[in-house]
Amino acid sequence: MKNHSKENNKIDKKVLATIIASVSLIVIAIIVLLLFFFAGKDGSKATNDILRINANNVTLYKGDTLNDYYELSIEDAQISIDVNKNDIIEIDKDKITALTSGEVTVTLIATYNDNSAKDTFTVKVLNCDYSYDVQTIINCSYQNNTLMVEGDYCQFNIEIYDFSGQPFESTDYKFTVTNNAILQKQIGGFILQTTTNCQITFTVPTIDYSFIIEVAKI
Q1: pLDDT tens digits for 11-66?
Q2: How far apart are CA 18 and CA 93, in angstroms?
Q3: Pick from 117, 115, 127, 125: nearest CA to 55
Q4: Is the CB of residue 210 less than 8 Å from the CB of residue 201?
Q5: Looking at residue 167, what DSSP letter applies?
Q6: Residue 26 is inside which H or E element, if any?
C-alpha cells in the first residue's frame, strides 16, 4: 500500500509540473502578444508600413478650392511640395486653391525616418468664361478696362482667350461704337477715330461672348 501511495504522489507531481509549465507558457504567450499590441499602439508598427503618397490629376475652375487632395500611408510623415509654375494655384498640404487659368505640375515628397516617397500630378485651372485682353499699338494705353487715347486716333488689337487661357482663333468680330466714333478692323488690328469719350461693344457670335471697353480721350 505504501508503494502504491508513493507512485500516486509521483504521478501527481508530474501532472502538477506539466500544468504549471503549460500555464507558464500560456502566460508568456499572452505577455508577448500584449507587448506586441501595445508596441504597435505606440507607433512601432508604423515603421514596418510602406511609405506611400498618391495624388490624381485635378481640373479646377478659377476660384475653386480642393481639400484632402492626396493619400498618405503614414500620417506622421512630413510633406514637402514643389510646383513648376507660380501664381496659377495656391497649395499647401491641406488644400489647393485655383488662382488663374493654366496648368501646373505638382511634386509631393513624403519623408518618415529614413524613408521617402514621391508622386507627381497636374492641376489644370479653367476660367469660368471666355476672357479678353487689349494690346495697344499706337497712341493709346489700357488699364482698368479703359482705353486711353492720345490724339484723334489710335491702333490696338484684341485677344480672346478660351476657358483654359489659350488664345481663341476667331476673326468673326462684331462691334458697335458710341458718340459718332469710327472703328475699323484692319490686318494689324483695330483703328479707332474719336474726338470724345465713347464705348466700344465687341461681340463674338460663334461663342456667344461680348464685352464693353470704355474709351477716354487724354
Answers
A1: 566 666 666 666 667 767 677 666 665 555 544 444 457 999 999 999 999 999 99
A2: 59
A3: 117
A4: yes
A5: B
A6: helix 2-41
Q: Which three cell numbers stand for residue 9?
A: 504522489
Amino acid symbol at 38: F
H or E element at residue 149:
strand 146-149
183: burial class by Cβ within 10 Å (0-12, 13-18, 19+)? middle
The DSSP secondary structure of 28-52, one letter per residue, reads HHHHHHHHHHHHHHTTGGGGGSPP-
| Cα→Cα distances 164→66, 90, 156, Å | 18, 17, 24
pTM for the structure as a whole: 0.61
- For the stretch 62-80, pLDDT in tens is 999 999 999 999 999 999 9
State the Cα torsion 26-28-32-38 to the nearest 10°: 90
